């Protein structure tokens, strides 16, 4: 429950340029926040995906810290 609360809080604070990881494991950078609750992310230079904001798992740097803590 606490992890879901943290994820929801993070999703509301997203800004253009944030590096994120989706729940499917896709890495990208926030390019545009849309009014309909979707987010456009850049996965490669010039390649964009539109995803639901709820599909964002965490900020990329947080994932790196979690992986480092496990090793």
Number of β-strand runs: 5
Class based on secondary structure composition and strand pairing: alpha+beta
What multimeric state do the chains show?
A: single chain
Query: Low-confidence runs (pLDDT<50, min 5 residues)?
Result: none
Q: H/E element string?
A: HEEEEEH
Strand order of the largest sheet: 4-3-2-1-5
Q: What is the helix content?
A: 25-40%
Mean pLDDT: 83
- Number of helices in the DSSP assignment: 2
Tell me the strand percentage band.
35-45%
Shape: globular
Distance between the termini: 25 Å
Biggest sheet character:
5 strands, antiparallel
Backbone CA Rg: 12 Å
Structural notes for this entry:
- This protein is of the alpha+beta class and 71 residues long.
- Helix content is 31%, strand content 39%.
- The protein is built from 2 helices and 5 strands; from the N terminus they run αβββββα.
- The chain has helices at 2-12, 60-70, and strands at 19-22, 27-33, 38-44, 47-52, 56-59.
- Strands 4-3-2-1-5 form a 5-stranded antiparallel sheet.
- A hairpin with a 2-residue loop joins strand 3 and strand 4 (47-52).
- The longest helix is centred in the first third of the chain and has 11 residues, at 2-12.
- It is globular.
- 7% of the residues are buried.
- The model has no long low-confidence stretch (mean pLDDT 83).
């Amino acid at each position: 429950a606490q992890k879901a609360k943290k994820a929801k809080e993070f999703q509301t604070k997203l800004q253009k340029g944030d590096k994120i990881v989706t729940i499917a494991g896709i890495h990208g950078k926030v390019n545009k926040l849309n009014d309909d609750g979707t987010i456009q992310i850049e996965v490669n230079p010039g390649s964009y995906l539109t995803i639901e904001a709820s599909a964002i798992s965490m900020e990329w740097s947080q994932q790196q810290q979690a992986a480092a803590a496990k090793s």
